[in-house]
Amino acid sequence: MSLTMYTASVPAFVRLLGNLRGILEKAAAHVESRKLEPAALIGFRLYPDMFPLVRQVQIATDMVKGCAARLAGVDVPRYEDSETSFDDLIARIDKTVAFLQGFKPGQIDGSEDKPIQLKSPRGEMNFTGLQYLQGFVLPNAYFHATTAYNILRHNGVELGKQDFIGRP
Hints:
Layout lengths: L4 H29 L4 H5 L10 H20 L13 H16 L3 H4 L6 E6 L2 E6 H26 L6 H5 L3
Antiparallel strand pairs: 1-2
Helix pairs in contact: 1-3, 1-4, 1-6, 3-4, 3-6
Protein backbone atom coordinates (compact mmCIF):
# COMPACT_ATOMS: atom_id res chain seq x y z
CA MET A 1 0.00 0.00 0.00
CA SER A 2 1.36 3.39 -0.91
CA LEU A 3 1.26 6.46 1.27
CA THR A 4 -1.53 8.78 0.22
CA MET A 5 -2.65 12.19 1.44
CA TYR A 6 -5.48 10.53 3.34
CA THR A 7 -3.31 7.89 5.02
CA ALA A 8 -0.70 10.54 5.88
CA SER A 9 -3.30 12.78 7.52
CA VAL A 10 -6.57 11.44 8.93
CA PRO A 11 -5.29 8.26 10.62
CA ALA A 12 -2.33 10.18 12.09
CA PHE A 13 -4.64 12.92 13.34
CA VAL A 14 -7.07 10.45 14.89
CA ARG A 15 -4.23 8.65 16.67
CA LEU A 16 -2.69 11.90 17.93
CA LEU A 17 -6.02 13.09 19.30
CA GLY A 18 -6.80 9.70 20.83
CA ASN A 19 -3.49 9.79 22.68
CA LEU A 20 -4.11 13.39 23.74
CA ARG A 21 -7.53 12.35 25.01
CA GLY A 22 -5.91 9.65 27.15
CA ILE A 23 -3.44 12.17 28.52
CA LEU A 24 -6.30 14.52 29.48
CA GLU A 25 -8.17 11.65 31.13
CA LYS A 26 -5.10 10.94 33.25
CA ALA A 27 -4.88 14.63 34.14
CA ALA A 28 -8.54 14.68 35.19
CA ALA A 29 -7.99 11.63 37.40
CA HIS A 30 -4.86 13.25 38.84
CA VAL A 31 -6.63 16.44 39.94
CA GLU A 32 -9.60 14.47 41.29
CA SER A 33 -7.47 12.07 43.35
CA ARG A 34 -5.42 14.90 44.79
CA LYS A 35 -8.36 17.25 45.33
CA LEU A 36 -6.75 19.91 43.12
CA GLU A 37 -8.54 22.68 41.29
CA PRO A 38 -8.75 21.60 37.61
CA ALA A 39 -8.62 25.23 36.44
CA ALA A 40 -5.08 25.48 37.78
CA LEU A 41 -3.91 22.90 35.24
CA ILE A 42 -6.21 23.97 32.43
CA GLY A 43 -4.89 27.52 32.70
CA PHE A 44 -1.26 26.58 33.31
CA ARG A 45 1.43 27.69 30.87
CA LEU A 46 5.07 26.63 30.84
CA TYR A 47 6.31 30.17 30.29
CA PRO A 48 4.55 33.54 30.44
CA ASP A 49 4.58 34.04 26.66
CA MET A 50 3.26 30.53 25.92
CA PHE A 51 -0.38 29.49 25.63
CA PRO A 52 -2.03 27.63 28.53
CA LEU A 53 -3.09 24.00 28.34
CA VAL A 54 -6.61 24.81 27.16
CA ARG A 55 -5.30 26.75 24.16
CA GLN A 56 -2.78 24.04 23.30
CA VAL A 57 -5.61 21.53 22.95
CA GLN A 58 -7.75 24.00 21.01
CA ILE A 59 -4.97 24.69 18.53
CA ALA A 60 -4.14 21.00 18.06
CA THR A 61 -7.76 20.21 17.25
CA ASP A 62 -8.11 23.29 15.04
CA MET A 63 -5.02 22.31 13.05
CA VAL A 64 -6.21 18.83 12.19
CA LYS A 65 -9.86 19.60 11.49
CA GLY A 66 -8.81 22.54 9.33
CA CYS A 67 -6.36 20.42 7.40
CA ALA A 68 -8.79 17.62 6.59
CA ALA A 69 -11.48 20.10 5.61
CA ARG A 70 -9.20 22.20 3.39
CA LEU A 71 -7.67 19.18 1.67
CA ALA A 72 -11.17 17.81 1.02
CA GLY A 73 -12.55 21.18 -0.09
CA VAL A 74 -15.24 21.43 2.59
CA ASP A 75 -15.97 24.15 5.14
CA VAL A 76 -13.85 24.12 8.28
CA PRO A 77 -16.12 23.71 11.31
CA ARG A 78 -15.93 26.55 13.81
CA TYR A 79 -15.68 25.84 17.52
CA GLU A 80 -16.43 28.39 20.22
CA ASP A 81 -13.17 27.92 22.17
CA SER A 82 -15.16 28.02 25.41
CA GLU A 83 -13.72 24.95 27.14
CA THR A 84 -13.21 25.34 30.88
CA SER A 85 -12.87 21.75 32.11
CA PHE A 86 -11.17 18.49 31.24
CA ASP A 87 -14.57 17.12 30.21
CA ASP A 88 -14.97 20.06 27.81
CA LEU A 89 -11.54 19.45 26.29
CA ILE A 90 -12.23 15.74 25.90
CA ALA A 91 -15.58 16.51 24.26
CA ARG A 92 -13.78 18.84 21.83
CA ILE A 93 -11.37 16.06 20.93
CA ASP A 94 -14.26 13.61 20.48
CA LYS A 95 -16.09 16.07 18.22
CA THR A 96 -12.95 16.55 16.14
CA VAL A 97 -12.30 12.81 15.84
CA ALA A 98 -15.91 12.26 14.72
CA PHE A 99 -15.45 14.98 12.09
CA LEU A 100 -12.22 13.40 10.86
CA GLN A 101 -13.73 9.93 10.72
CA GLY A 102 -16.42 11.28 8.41
CA PHE A 103 -13.91 11.65 5.57
CA LYS A 104 -13.40 9.02 2.93
CA PRO A 105 -9.95 8.58 1.32
CA GLY A 106 -11.28 9.74 -2.05
CA GLN A 107 -12.11 13.16 -0.59
CA ILE A 108 -8.49 13.84 0.38
CA ASP A 109 -6.34 11.68 -1.89
CA GLY A 110 -4.91 13.58 -4.84
CA SER A 111 -4.76 16.89 -2.96
CA GLU A 112 -0.93 17.07 -3.00
CA ASP A 113 -0.90 20.00 -5.43
CA LYS A 114 -4.13 21.65 -4.30
CA PRO A 115 -3.52 25.34 -3.49
CA ILE A 116 -4.11 26.09 0.17
CA GLN A 117 -4.22 29.70 1.33
CA LEU A 118 -4.34 30.75 4.98
CA LYS A 119 -4.76 34.25 6.30
CA SER A 120 -3.12 35.02 9.61
CA PRO A 121 -2.20 38.09 11.62
CA ARG A 122 1.31 37.68 10.19
CA GLY A 123 0.05 37.72 6.63
CA GLU A 124 -1.10 35.36 3.94
CA MET A 125 0.45 31.90 3.68
CA ASN A 126 0.28 29.87 0.49
CA PHE A 127 0.97 26.15 0.23
CA THR A 128 0.37 23.15 -1.92
CA GLY A 129 -1.65 20.47 -0.15
CA LEU A 130 1.45 18.40 0.52
CA GLN A 131 3.44 21.37 1.85
CA TYR A 132 0.50 22.33 4.05
CA LEU A 133 0.18 18.84 5.52
CA GLN A 134 3.87 18.02 5.96
CA GLY A 135 5.40 21.41 6.65
CA PHE A 136 2.67 23.23 8.55
CA VAL A 137 -0.10 21.08 10.03
CA LEU A 138 1.80 18.02 11.23
CA PRO A 139 4.56 20.02 12.98
CA ASN A 140 2.01 22.37 14.55
CA ALA A 141 -0.36 19.64 15.71
CA TYR A 142 2.47 17.64 17.29
CA PHE A 143 4.00 20.77 18.83
CA HIS A 144 0.77 21.73 20.59
CA ALA A 145 -0.02 18.18 21.69
CA THR A 146 3.55 17.85 23.01
CA THR A 147 3.24 21.14 24.87
CA ALA A 148 -0.03 19.97 26.45
CA TYR A 149 1.74 16.77 27.54
CA ASN A 150 4.66 18.80 28.94
CA ILE A 151 2.38 21.12 30.90
CA LEU A 152 0.70 18.17 32.56
CA ARG A 153 3.93 16.26 33.17
CA HIS A 154 5.51 19.38 34.67
CA ASN A 155 2.58 19.56 37.07
CA GLY A 156 3.00 16.03 38.35
CA VAL A 157 0.58 14.07 36.18
CA GLU A 158 2.09 10.61 35.87
CA LEU A 159 2.66 10.38 32.13
CA GLY A 160 5.28 8.63 30.08
CA LYS A 161 6.39 8.51 26.49
CA GLN A 162 3.98 5.67 25.75
CA ASP A 163 1.07 7.93 26.74
CA PHE A 164 2.09 10.35 24.02
CA ILE A 165 2.95 7.96 21.22
CA GLY A 166 0.34 5.34 22.09
CA ARG A 167 0.32 1.69 21.25
CA PRO A 168 0.55 0.49 17.64
